Amino acid sequence: MKSEKNSKSIIYVNFAPYENAGKILDFILNRFTTVIVYSFNFHRLSPDQKPSRLTIYKQGKQIYWTKLFQTPTTVNLAFILLPIRSIVLFLQLVFHGIRLRKKYGKPDLFFTVNAFTAWCGNFMKKYGLVNETIFWVWDYYPPVHESKMVMFMRWLYWQFDKPAAMQADRIVFLNRHLKNLRQEIGVLPKHGTYPIVGIGTNPTTQTIKIKLLKTSHLVFLGVLKRIQGLDIFFDSAKGLALYNPNIILHVIGGGPDLDYYRKRASSCPLTVIFHGYIKNEKAVDAIIRKCSIGIAPYVPDKSNCIYYSDPSKIKRYLNFGLPVITTDVFDFSKDIARTNAGIVIPYGSRYFINAVKIIHKRYRFYRENAQNLAKKYTYTRLYKKIFE
User: Fold this and answer.
1) DSSP label at residue 174
2) What are the domain boundaries of the chain?
3) DSSP assignment letter at 306
4) What pLDDT was estimated at residue 188?
């Protein structure tokens, strides 16, 4: 990637493991002279997960890092204690903002993808700790859920989302659903023009072998929560084993439902390999590269925030030409279906089994289409729209 650095400085705030989703951190490091990165942990992804941290880069090279305070909690209490954890996060942003301004000067930009941290950025701007704020809107949490506690937390989050969008100097949306929603409910002017920038890709420059081996390797990348839909594989396992007993599933990631899926795997007729949460991106890519199909079978539930998202895992699969099997619950699924870069299915085991069979029969066709779709969303070109 050719360097296009300017003399500006930036604060970038995100949550693990999404700091470099779609190579956004790589893009920032290449574009800005001074980069201050706050990476906060939300989910417990593994016992050896690194703590939340503050890292500073100069000319793309790390010059300083320190641990950030994490509110002690358990998996069960993590969500309930969210207001306390948010206050701790806010205080640390302000404290380090004051401390670092004395040493590095006032940052030109505050950039984030989360409504609460975007609100924090606007607060810091108001009190002279940053010059401008950019909110790249990644999510919307529908105020519908079977749990009253979850509904209340989502309502609380929305109280920060409104001012975060209205007060940001620049607002960019991940997809049209997020933009249309805020315009329809009056948070933003209906006739306003806002950039739409999805998660970028980084297509491999190496030659990809168009070959499907006797042993078929499927891969699932992401936080292990049931709403992510991984149950569909285990529900389909008997049927898949009858079709091809040599299918292997690679699971990359950790999360609150890891033990649940380990238990399901113990009685699964197919081989399931849990790699756990892997911080090193090259190690993750090495696993994906050896696989043949990437799966992202999200559960089509009205409370699922993925309806308004652009899953970075899918772009990661496409980087290596992996055909994708996914469900029709987000905007980008239309691109996959339209370009035949994979198969979009209703959520159900018989549909999943059928999709695996179809891709196997026309593997070269789907793989070439996946490669072509990846090239369309190359991050080095895409992310320029965020900072223009």
Assistant:
1) S
2) 6-196, 217-376
3) G
4) 83
